[in-house]
């Protein structure tokens, strides 16, 4: 006997230490919530006893305290919580019956599988009926009433809440599975779109390499031959021939950069060692435009932009180059001025040309170059304007931060040449063009396992897990909603019975 008591004492101490460690590890919000729920149940079970005196007050107080203790147990020991409601069904404190459905509903939701929950419910019903039978044997006349009342209470306060709890417990994994299926489908759609974009970019790069690369190579070869011939037979034209050859060479280099960007899957920053956008680079663009016949002057105020961000310098280079190209195409011979002002962490670039002094035949354009500049500048957090100058001619201006903080605009719309169009959030590729980041489809997917459900899936190259799709029949919202609606309908008789019991207790 002493050994049994010693084992029981050790088991109690061990359980107490375990619960203490679990209490310390639990989030503070959970501890506060459970404590508040226990105090609420204790208040509901004990405060009415001050007005309605039971026949056995000590036993009624113990029942109220027991109901309050079962509240925090329902999560960690749900089976014990269900079994612990058996004494409350046959007790004298009718107010404790309010807590029985809540405890059973919450506990059975956490018991898996469902048959285990029903085993505990049946054991509780058997225990309650046994206690009722023992109590009724003291007064044989009250035995049928005692057993019948306990059986009805067990049906309304124990079986129906258990049925509702098991339905809600089945609803929870359905919702979790539905969310995982949606996440899988979203991930699959994203990977499919990324692969399609990369394939399209590779196709475009191949077409550009086969067509433009061949043509530019021919132009460069013929321009070199023309330069040699002009140096011998027409020296005044040698400069123009050299400009044609160098321009073709620069076009070939830029084409290689574009092809590298199109074929590259990952997005990287432009090289900070690049001299694009510096004072020397802008001066070279101006000198190149002069050699092509544009009357252009450069005005630079403030420090050099060599320390500015590579994307900012790239945008400056593109703005000046595009504007000077448009002057050469649409206003050849018009006096032009390039102004660069750098101060207070921002750079202002403007290219202004006067009206042509002689009639010209401008080439047909669709403003796509200016639209691209507008998007590029706004992606860096700057502002861009392009339009007729007040004194005639045309003006292109951009205001850029020296160190852009992001690659997306703060709002979802931007104004381009008098019209408002949506601008999607995008990344910036090494050349500064907006392009979405892509994952490398050549990287083989790896298998992944759902830690909570044991579902196998794949991990994409970015590290995101995508689980294999589950049965569509098991993941439908009608079933999920149906489980919740059925649980509510099952709980209605329990609520009605509690209202009747409490009303009778008050009337007594």
Description:
This protein is of the alpha+beta class and 508 residues long. It has 13 helices and ten strands. It has helices at residues 2-25, 28-46, 57-76, 78-83, 86-89, 99-109, 114-136, 143-233, 238-263, 279-291, 310-330, 368-379, 477-507, and strands spanning 296-301, 336-343, 346-353, 383-388, 394-401, 413-416, 419-422, 446-449, 456-459, 465-467. The strands form three sheets. Strands 1-2-3-5-4 form a five-stranded mixed sheet, with helices on one face. Strands 8-9-10 form a three-stranded antiparallel sheet. A hairpin with a 2-residue loop joins strand 6 and strand 7. Helix 2 runs antiparallel to helix 3, helix 7 packs antiparallel against helix 8 (143-233) and helix 10 runs parallel beside helix 11. 26% of the residues are buried. Residues 407-475 have low confidence and may be disordered.
Question: What's this, in brief?
Answer:
The chain has 508 residues and is of the alpha+beta class. The chain has helices spanning 2-25, 28-46, 57-76, 78-83, 86-89, 99-109, 114-136, 143-233, 238-263, 279-291, 310-330, 368-379, 477-507; strands at residues 296-301, 336-343, 346-353, 383-388, 394-401, 413-416, 419-422, 446-449, 456-459, 465-467. It starts with a helix and ends with a helix.
Give keywords.
rod-shaped, 508 residues, three-stranded antiparallel β-sheet, single chain, five-stranded mixed β-sheet, 11% strand, 59% helix, 10 strands, alpha+beta
């Amino acid at each position: 006997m002493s050994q049994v008591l010693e084992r029981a004492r050790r088991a109690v101490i061990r359980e107490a230490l375990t619960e203490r460690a679990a209490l310390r590890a639990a989030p503070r919000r959970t501890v506060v919530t459970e404590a508040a729920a226990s105090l609420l149940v204790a208040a509901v079970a004990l405060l009415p006893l001050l007005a309605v005196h039971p026949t056995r007050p000590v036993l009624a107080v113990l029942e109220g305290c027991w109901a309050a203790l079962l509240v925090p147990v329902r999560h960690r020991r749900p089976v014990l919580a269900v079994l612990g409601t058996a004494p409350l069904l046959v007790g004298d404190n009718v107010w404790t019956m309010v807590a029985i459905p809540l405890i059973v509903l919450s506990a059975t939701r956490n018991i898996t599988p469902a048959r285990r929950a029903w085993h505990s419910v049946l054991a509780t019903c058997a225990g309650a009926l046994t206690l009722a039978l023992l109590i009724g044997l003291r007064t044989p006349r009250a035995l049928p009433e005692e057993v019948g009342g306990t059986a009805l209470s067990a049906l309304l306060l124990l079986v129906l809440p258990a049925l509702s709890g098991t339905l809600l417990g089945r609803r929870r994994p359905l919702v979790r599975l539905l969310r995982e299926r949606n996440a899988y489908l979203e991930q699959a759609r994203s990977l499919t779109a990324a692969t399609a974009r990369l394939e399209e970019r590779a196709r475009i790069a191949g077409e550009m390499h086969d067509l433009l690369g061949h043509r530019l190579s021919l132009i460069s070869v013929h321009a070199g031959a023309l330069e040699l011939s002009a140096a011998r037979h027409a020296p005044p034209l040698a400069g123009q021939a050299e400009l044609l050859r160098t321009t073709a060479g620069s076009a070939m280099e830029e084409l290689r950069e574009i092809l590298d960007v199109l074929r590259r899957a990952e997005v990287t920053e432009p090289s900070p060692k690049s001299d694009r956008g510096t004072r020397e680079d802008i001066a070279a663009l101006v000198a190149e435009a002069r050699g092509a016949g544009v009357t252009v002057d450069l005005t630079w105020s403030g420090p050099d932009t060599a320390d500015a961000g590579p994307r900012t310098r790239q945008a400056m280079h593109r703005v000046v180059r595009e504007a000077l190209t448009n002057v050469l195409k649409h206003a050849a011979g018009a006096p032009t001025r390039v102004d660069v002002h750098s101060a207070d962490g921002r750079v202002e670039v403007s290219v202004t040309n006067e009206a042509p002094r002689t009639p010209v035949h401008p080439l047909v354009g669709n403003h796509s170059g200016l639209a691209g500049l507008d998007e590029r500048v706004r992606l860096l957090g700057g502002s861009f304007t392009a339009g007729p100058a007040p004194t005639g001619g045309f003006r292109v201006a951009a205001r850029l931060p020296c160190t852009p903080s992001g690659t997306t605009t703060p709002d979802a719309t931007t104004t381009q040449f008098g019209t408002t169009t949506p601008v999607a959030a995008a990344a910036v590729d090494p050349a500064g063009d907006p392009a979405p980041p892509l994952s490398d489809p050549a990287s083989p997917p790896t298998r992944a396992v759902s830690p909570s459900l044991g579902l196998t899936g794949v991990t994409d190259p970015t590290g995101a897990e995508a689980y294999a799709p589950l049965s569509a029949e098991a993941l439908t919202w009608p079933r999920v909603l149906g489980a919740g609606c059925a649980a509510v309908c099952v709980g209605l008789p329990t609520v009605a019975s509690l209202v009747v019991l409490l009303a009778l207790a008050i009337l007594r």
